[in-house]
């Protein structure tokens, strides 16, 4: 599975270009508004073309990510996905309780993380050593919270709560709790 | 006139509070209180920005999170609600050309909002009640972390604000539909149908079109007010629910928290809360854009019928998009995630995009225009939503949400750019536009200060959102504390932009105070000797 940093890079690039373009457009319109016009307003054809563009953009955005982001389809059909390994984790009193001191996973293995909360709503996030996020999910008490992931690279990863659960939640960090080892 | 004299009497002594009608005074009170609470939110924001760079020793983490809890609520309910309610309680009768239904009820809305905000703010400040505005169950009733008494006072403050909002809703709809004394009977049903969009909808299928009885901006206010009503009901109900647990705890009973399903609660709460973020804000803002564009351009709105239809679509969309807040909740049904969370949410790109285009096209038809304060702030507001709405659409995607949820991306490029640039600059445009009308021709003290306000708000708002967003893309979470300076480069830059926002606000506040003078500010809170039914002292 492609690393989530690749997806983030694509998103950063697309949104940055969009922002620059939009700032330039509004700036240009602001400048032109103070200049005399040729008479007449915007033609309806321009308006309807814009409407069509927005509609296509709105609909296609999610279809594109559905087909290009590798974790979307397995996520929507999690119950029927066969996995290589399952980790059951409990959370209570602002503490993660792992099945082992360190969760060891092979590169490329399909892993299901099942996280249950005994009290509050928490988050379950996995982070790289440089603090960037690999993925996260919410951990809601009274419900099954599971996510399937494949790690493309070996390394050590940190588990951290990604949801506010009161001031104590800021300390819910397990450094190097996941070790991904080479498949060989 | 010396600076001291101007500070006391206002620019050229032009502002005379005695000439104001009760409605003008009330509207100005809403604006003054809204701006004071905006100042609270800006200062709280700056404290948090500094704290994210390095925790401040004399502010404990409990107080930090209490500030974080109060900050958006003071900003939304104390500031935005006050300014919006004040402006609409004046503009709806102004545009409908009839008196407000109840001046007393409007005054109640003002006092309940002002006092309620102070109550919940001070309760959080004193007791450090900090479940954050999302109140994910059972956190608000976790009395091992929070004081039940402090929480009860906090909830009481919120309830007062919501009661004021309910009074606003009643007043707006009654003003649209009632028959003033001595008038011919008004067609209440037809007025309501026009305000809510039913007339526009049926017109699509009729050869002979029915005339719209209410102006387009009033239709926008009415539709946004529907969401205010639903939202107030949900928050009031939720407040009472939490209060039951708090009172139980104070009386020594430990009520069973599992009686409330956490996911069902989250759905319920987000349905109601989203009526603010994705409902009334977008609808009210679109209505304000249309009003300002037609007033500035002096021309009819471009594609008026489509604008009316889009407002109706936006209202229905706002009832069905809440699931985009639950894309990372794995127990949430996949169908709801895809249909409500992704697809319907994407409609906001279309409806807000239409409002953006229609506003610009209306202005375009009236070239050349003078770059007045209201026009430049309106353009800033348009840019804010043009940047902030797509940032929200991006995170409302099942795939991208997995790596963006609860990061600084959510609060930076989406929330803060939409609120500080989009919403705030639109409200400032309305304030600059209404200033001479509400003050009977008072003159702005300094155009230079207004220009600094504009650029500081625009650059500070966009810049802060951008640097928070960059930190979010690098994995920085919201609603937590980083004690080791992990994201300091971004946070220092965001704090500098926050400083620009503070500078802009101070310039604006000084400009307004110097324009009306300290005597004028106090005079706004005095009683008016003029008729309550008159909006303005003379025909303008």
Account of the 3D structure:
The complex is a heterodimer of chains A (184) and B (540). With 184 residues, chain A is an alpha+beta fold. Helices cover 33% and strands 31% of the residues of chain A. Chain A has helices spanning 4-33, 44-68, 72-76; strands at residues 85-92, 95-97, 103-106, 110-117, 122-127, 133-139, 145-150, 155-160, 173-181. Chain A starts with a helix and ends with a strand. The model of chain A has no long low-confidence stretch (mean pLDDT 94). By secondary structure, chain B is mostly helical. Helices cover 72% and strands 0% of the residues of chain B. Chain B has helices at 3-9, 22-53, 61-96, 103-127, 148-177, 188-196, 198-203, 216-250, 262-297, 304-318, 334-364, 373-395, 398-404, 408-438, 447-473, 488-524. Chains A and B meet through α1, α2, α3, β5 and β6 of A and α3, α9, α11, α12 and α13 of B.
Helices and strands in order, then pairings?
The complex is a heterodimer of chains A (184) and B (540).
Chain A: H1 4-33, H2 44-68, H3 72-76, E1 85-92, E2 95-97, E3 103-106, E4 110-117, E5 122-127, E6 133-139, E7 145-150, E8 155-160, E9 173-181
Parallel strand pairs in A: 1-4, 3-9
Antiparallel strand pairs in A: 1-2, 4-7, 5-6, 5-8, 8-9
Chain B: H1 3-9, H2 22-53, H3 61-96, H4 103-127, H5 148-177, H6 188-196, H7 198-203, H8 216-250, H9 262-297, H10 304-318, H11 334-364, H12 373-395, H13 398-404, H14 408-438, H15 447-473, H16 488-524
Helix pairs in contact in B: 1-16, 2-3, 2-4, 2-16, 3-4, 3-5, 3-14, 4-5, 5-8, 8-9, 8-10, 9-10, 9-11, 9-12, 9-14, 10-11, 11-12, 12-14, 12-15, 14-15, 15-16
């Amino acid at each position: 599975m492609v690393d989530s940093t690749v997806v983030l890079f694509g998103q950063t690039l697309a949104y940055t270009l969009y922002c620059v373009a939009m700032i330039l457009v509004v700036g240009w319109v602001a400048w032109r508004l103070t200049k005399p016009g040729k008479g007449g307003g915007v033609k309806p054809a321009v308006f309807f073309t814009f409407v069509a563009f927005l509609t296509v953009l709105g609909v296609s955005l999610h279809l594109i990510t559905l087909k290009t982001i590798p974790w979307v389809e397995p996520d929507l059909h999690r119950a029927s996905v066969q996995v290589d390994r399952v980790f059951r984790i409990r959370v209570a009193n602002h503490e993660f309780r792992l099945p082992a001191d360190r969760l060891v996973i092979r590169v490329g293995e399909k892993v299901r993380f099942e996280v249950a909360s005994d009290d509050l709503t928490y988050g379950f996030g996995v982070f790289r050593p440089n603090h960037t996020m690999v993925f996260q999910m919410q951990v809601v008490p009274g419900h099954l919270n599971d996510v399937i992931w494949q790690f493309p690279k070996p390394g050590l990863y940190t588990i951290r709560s990604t949801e506010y659960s009161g001031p104590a939640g800021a300390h819910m960090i397990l450094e190097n709790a996941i070790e991904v080892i080479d498949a060989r | 006139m010396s600076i001291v004299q101007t500070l006391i009497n206002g620019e050229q002594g032009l502002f005379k509070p005695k000439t104001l009608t009760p409605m003008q005074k009330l509207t100005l009170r809403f604006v003054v209180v809204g701006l004071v609470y905006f100042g609270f939110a800006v200062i709280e924001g700056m404290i948090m920005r500094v704290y994210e760079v390095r925790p401040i020793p004399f502010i404990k983490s409990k107080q930090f999170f209490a500030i974080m809890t109060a900050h958006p609520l003071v900003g939304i309910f104390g500031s935005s609600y006050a300014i919006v309610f004040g402006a609409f309680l004046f503009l709806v009768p102004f545009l409908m050309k009839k008196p407000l239904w109840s001046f007393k009820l409007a005054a109640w809305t003002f006092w309940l909002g002002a006092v309620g905000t102070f109550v919940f703010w001070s309760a959080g400040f004193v007791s450090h009640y900090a479940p954050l505005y999302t109140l994910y169950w059972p956190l608000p009733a976790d009395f091992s972390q929070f004081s039940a008494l402090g929480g009860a006072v906090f909830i009481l403050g919120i309830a007062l604000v919501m009661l004021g909002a309910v009074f606003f809703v009643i007043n707006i709809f009654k003003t649209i539909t009632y028959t003033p004394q001595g008038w011919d009977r008004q067609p209440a049903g037809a007025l309501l149908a026009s305000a809510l969009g039913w007339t526009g909808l049926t017109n699509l299928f009729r050869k002979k079109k029915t005339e719209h009885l209410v102006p387009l901006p009033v239709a926008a206010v009415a539709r946004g007010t529907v969401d205010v009503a639903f939202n107030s009901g949900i928050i009031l109900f939720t407040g009472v629910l939490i209060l039951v647990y708090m009172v139980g705890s104070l009386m020594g009973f430990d009520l069973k928290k599992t009686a409330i399903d956490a996911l069902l609660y989250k759905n319920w709460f987000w349905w109601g809360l989203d009526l603010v973020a994705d409902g009334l804000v977008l609808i009210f803002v679109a209505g304000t854009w249309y009003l300002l564009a037609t007033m500035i351009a002096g021309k009819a709105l471009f594609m008026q019928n489509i604008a009316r239809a889009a407002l109706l679509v936006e209202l229905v969309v706002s009832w069905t998009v809440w699931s985009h807040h639950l894309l990372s909740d794995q127990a949430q049904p996949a169908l709801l995630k895809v249909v409500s969370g992704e697809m319907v949410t994407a409609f906001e790109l279309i409806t807000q995009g239409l409002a953006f285009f229609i506003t610009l096209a209306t202005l375009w038809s009236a070239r050349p225009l003078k770059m007045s304060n209201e026009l430049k702030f309106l353009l800033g507001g348009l840019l804010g939503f043009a940047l902030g709405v797509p940032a929200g659409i991006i995170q409302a995607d099942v795939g991208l949400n997995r790596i963006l949820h609860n990061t600084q991306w959510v609060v930076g490029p989406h929330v803060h750019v939409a609120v500080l640039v989009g919403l705030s600059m639109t409200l400032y445009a309305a304030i600059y536009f209404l200033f001479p009308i509400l003050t009977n021709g008072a003159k702005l003290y300094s155009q230079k200060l207004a220009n600094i306000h504009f650029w500081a708000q625009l650059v500070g708002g966009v810049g802060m959102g951008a640097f928070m967003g960059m930190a979010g893309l690098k994995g920085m979470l919201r609603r937590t504390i980083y004690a080791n300076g992990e994201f300091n480069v971004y946070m220092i830059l965001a704090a500098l932009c926050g400083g620009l926002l503070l500078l802009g606000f101070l310039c604006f506040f000084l400009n307004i105070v110097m324009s009306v003078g300290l005597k004028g500010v106090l005079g706004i809170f005095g009683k008016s000797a003029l008729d309550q039914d008159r909006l303005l002292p003379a025909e303008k």
